[in-house]
Amino acid sequence: MIDCRCKDSTNKGDGLRFSEKSLILQHEIIKNSIIMQRFTKAIAAIMLTMAVVCAVGCKKNDNPNNGGNGGGNNGNNSNGTYNGHEYVDLGLPSGTLWATCNIGATKPEGYGDYFAWGETEPKTIYDWCTYKYCNDCDPNLLTRYCYYAGYGYNGFTDNLTVLQPMDDAATANWGSGWRMPTSKQWRELSDNTTVTWTTQNSVKGRKFTASNGNSLFLPSSGYYDGSSLGYGGSYGCYWSSLLNDEYPGQAWYFYFDSGDDYYVYHGGNRYNGRSVRAVREN
User: Fold this and answer.
1) How many Å apart are CA 267 and CA 139, to the nearest integer?
2) Strands of the chain, DSSP E
3) Comparing C-alpha atoms, which of 76, 83, 39 is closest to residue 179?
4) What is the pTM for the complete model shown?
5) What is d(CA 163, CA 177) in angstroms, rounded to the nearest whole number?
6) Which of 53, 54, 132, 239 is deepest in the core (most CB within 10 A)?
7) What is the pLDDT of residue 76?
8) Is residue 205 pLDDT above 90, yes or no?
9) What is the mean pLDDT of residues 127-143?
10) How far apart are CA 81 and CA 99, in angstroms?
């Protein structure tokens, strides 16, 4: 019969060997614990560094007031800058690059400045009496951009139908390489993107989303007639660089509202103060 009861060891050598093994085992446990602590601290340090890098790298996009448009809260995409102003590539057939902000604005939602057609500085009153290129407050006495003598001062004509760089608000304010879009470029924008009415950072407007995933936001900035801003938050009215081909007292502009309407229209009085969104070639 086998005796399963525990017996006291009387072998001192075996007792010493058991004690040494116990100490060695405890030392290994402590050693491994220290290694794990150092490993954990290293991982924590790496994660902290990555968090700081991410915070710094994303700061521009998270701030809607700094003029950045690389996605984030702004809902736009910035692909580059030129002369200090950002643009987005919507993959349009012509290769046209669109500015992400209006002239005079620092963010996509900003209304920016308002310009009469052919003028390069904002003002307080927009009417024929303050318009640069007519005499005696009379739209039939034009002094520049007139192809019909019956509307020119003393029969004046110059046959200019597209804004020259000196009269282009985009070129004059942002420098060579930027200009106001043609009516054809406005049509290209709306024909080659998905156009939606939306609210971005509490500002209403139209968003143009391209097939390449990039997008452009235009605020419904309204327009000036006299000294009053009309239809801000309801209409968008953006100048083109092209003169009306039927009446030289008017020019083409891009119009949109909260309904289904967004189109290029030829009947904008040149004296009205409207927004300007610049373009440049790719």
Assistant:
1) 14
2) 80-82, 85-89, 97-102, 194-200, 203-209, 215-219, 223-225, 228-230, 236-243, 250-256, 262-269, 277-280
3) 83
4) 0.74
5) 14
6) 239
7) 63
8) yes
9) 98
10) 9
